[in-house]
Amino acid sequence: MRVSTANTGLHLSSRSYYFFRPFIPRSLQIFLRRNLIHMKNAARRSNWPIDLKAGRLPAMWQGWPGKSRFAFILTHDVDTAAGFDRCLDVLALEKQLGFKSSFNFVPERYPLRREVLSAVAANGFEVGVHGLKHDGKLYNSYRTFRLRREKINSYLSDWQAVGFRSPSMHHNLGWIQELNIEYDSSTFDTDPFEPQSDGVQTIFPFWVEGPNSHEGYVEMPYTLPQDFTLFVMLREKTDLIWKKKLEWIVEKGGLALMNTHPDYMNFASGLPGREQYPVRLYEEFLKYVSREYAGMYWHVLPKTIARFYKQTHVRFAAYKDTLPPGVPSPDRLRMPDLGLPQEE
């Protein structure tokens, strides 16, 4: 699958919101967003949390490694200093349950302690870059993006990171090509509640082609609703929506990619704060996946999924293009030995 790299951009109303957001009390922001989301939820039940169009198999889809029916990826956007302070707690929880994930940090919004980034990598987890400032202005103009691009690339290099996600899921797939990345994850299959709500309508990774056939990156949309949407905005009390969406993704053989936030997880006893939910909801869902889908999923880091897709799908497509006219297309058993990526 190849996509257009044209910028759909944010509506003027969204740009105005991010301009005035620093002056709006957080409690009022949450109140306004909750009301907007509830209105959208009533109108968009036909394509959220499941958009049936997103389940179509991509052309030349070769499947997941081994006998895996689907892939399962955990990612975290760390938006605030409070979230940064909880990262190692999230890591310990996932490690105890036999999972691993990527943590996407905002380089210039809160103090970043090098020992935390080192601990993430040392435990076999992944570090990614989450924009630059998290102020909603990254794609306001190409000039703004160009000025920030150099800094983002510098952090990617310094952190030895190969993955990127834009704050607030804003995206311009064409401009993102200018980042030194192997994959991006700034899109979603369907999510009408996001400011830039143009879902890519697929639960599979896809290739964003650069100026020539040798350049580009893998795009991996998140496919399970964000925790902030479910538990803070919609105030759901169970993980039932996650379970129902996952069941459908498994049926279609797609990519189940979660995007959760340590910022909103409450590890303490007692009632969660206004913008928190009990971490047990996340913990119970991971236990559910491990128990109900044991032996059925490929669980690796996002960078491994990206390298797998590039090696076994993009290169396979290029290989097919070299065949003389009339030669039958090779199936996956007769493919050249491209090799599968290994976890570091």
Written description of the protein model:
The structure is a single chain. By secondary structure, the chain is α/β, with parallel strands linked by helices. The protein has one domain: TIM Barrel. It is 37% helix and 12% strand. It contains ten helices and eleven strands. It has helices at 12-20, 26-43, 81-97, 114-122, 142-158, 173-176, 227-233, 240-252, 279-292, 302-321, and strands at 70-78, 102-105, 126-129, 163-164, 183-184, 206-209, 216-219, 255-260, 265-266, 277-278, 297-299. Strands 1, 2, 3, 8 and 11 form a five-stranded parallel β-sheet that branches. Strands 4-5-7-6 form a four-stranded mixed β-sheet. The protein is globular and about 65 Å long. It starts with 11 loop residues before the first helix and ends in a 23-residue tail after the last helix. The model is unreliable at 1-8 and 327-339 (pLDDT under 50).
